[in-house]
């Protein structure tokens, strides 16, 4: 009787180890890729960063160019030396980027307003009320210029403030951060109003809140300048 053969000895299963170092490195790489994908997909929220905090497609500061000699800074004391002088041509854009300009051709009222200015917050509704009642008289034009804008001040952004003042239907030239459009017309404070005849010459300039009935009288002056 032959002896039972012993099964051949089996080698213990070989264990393969994966160094902990490479596990950590792989995890870091994966997390990095996830972060990059998240940044790419979430970084564009549709806002216009150049606009300084406005909603999508809206620029709270414009790009302004001036052609001609700026008017001297306005002063309420004494006669205004700018009356009768040629105003410079001011070109810019609306909040949504449409080209706008203050140019000769039509007797024009130019109204400079700052969203944070309390006097402007008093005067703008008076202008809106006049427009809702009478509209811009035929043969004249109106341009508002949001200026002096400050993203740390009340009523930011100016594009929304103009809507709140019920002036969003008015032709608008948005000033830049440097106040170029205001300086071109000699702005010294807010609100600031310049009347220009059809040749682009200054009829009058005034600053601050105006008396009741001012807008009707001012547009009458504009119409009179056209007739003359």
Task: Write the SSE topology.
Elements: H1 20-42, E1 65-67, E2 89-93, E3 99-102, E4 108-113, H2 118-134, E5 141-146, H3 158-164, H4 180-184, E6 192-196, E7 202-207, H5 214-227
Parallel strand pairs: 4-5
Antiparallel strand pairs: 1-2, 2-3, 4-6, 6-7
Structural write-up:
This protein is an alpha+beta fold. The chain has a domain at 83-227: 3-Layer(aba) Sandwich (Glutaredoxin), CATH 3.40.30.10. It contains five helices and seven strands; from the N terminus they run αββββαβααββα. It has a four-stranded mixed beta sheet with strand order 5-4-6-7. Strands 1-2-3 form a three-stranded antiparallel beta sheet. The longest helix has 23 residues, at 20-42. Residues 1-18, 21-25 and 33-50 have low confidence and may be disordered.
Mean pLDDT: 84
The amount of helix comes to 25-40%
Distance between the termini: 141 Å
CATH-defined topology of the domain at 83-227: Glutaredoxin
Radius of gyration, in angstroms, nearest whole number: 33 Å
Q: Could you name the key traits of this structure?
A:
228 residues; 5 helices; Glutaredoxin; three-stranded antiparallel beta sheet
Briefly characterize the structure.
The chain has 228 residues and is an alpha+beta fold. The protein has 5 helices and 7 strands; from the N terminus they run H-E-E-E-E-H-E-H-H-E-E-H.
């Amino acid at each position: 009787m032959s002896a039972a053969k012993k099964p051949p000895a089996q080698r213990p299963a070989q264990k393969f180890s994966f160094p902990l170092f490479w596990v950590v490195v792989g995890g870091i790489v994966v997390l990095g890729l996830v972060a990059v994908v998240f940044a790419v997909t979430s970084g564009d929220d549709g806002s216009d960063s150049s606009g300084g905090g406005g909603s999508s497609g809206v620029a709270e500061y414009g790009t302004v160019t001036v052609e001609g000699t700026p008017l001297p800074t306005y002063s309420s004391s004494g006669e205004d030396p700018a009356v009768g002088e040629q105003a410079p041509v001011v070109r810019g854009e609306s909040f949504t980027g449409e080209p706008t300009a203050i140019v000769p051709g039509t007797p024009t009222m130019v109204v400079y307003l700052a969203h944070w200015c309390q006097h402007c917050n008093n005067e703008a509704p008076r202008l809106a009320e006049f427009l809702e009642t009478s509209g811009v008289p035929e043969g004249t034009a109106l341009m508002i210029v949001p200026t002096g804008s400050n993203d740390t001040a009340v009523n930011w952004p100016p594009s929304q403030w103009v809507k709140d003042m019920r002036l969003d239907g008015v032709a608008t030239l948005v000033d830049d951060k440097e106040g170029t459009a205001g300086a071109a017309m000699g702005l010294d404070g807010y609100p600031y109003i310049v009347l220009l005849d059809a040749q682009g010459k200054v009829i009058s300039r005034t600053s601050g809140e105006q008396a009741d009935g001012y807008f009707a009288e001012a547009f009458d002056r504009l119409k009179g300048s056209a007739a003359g």
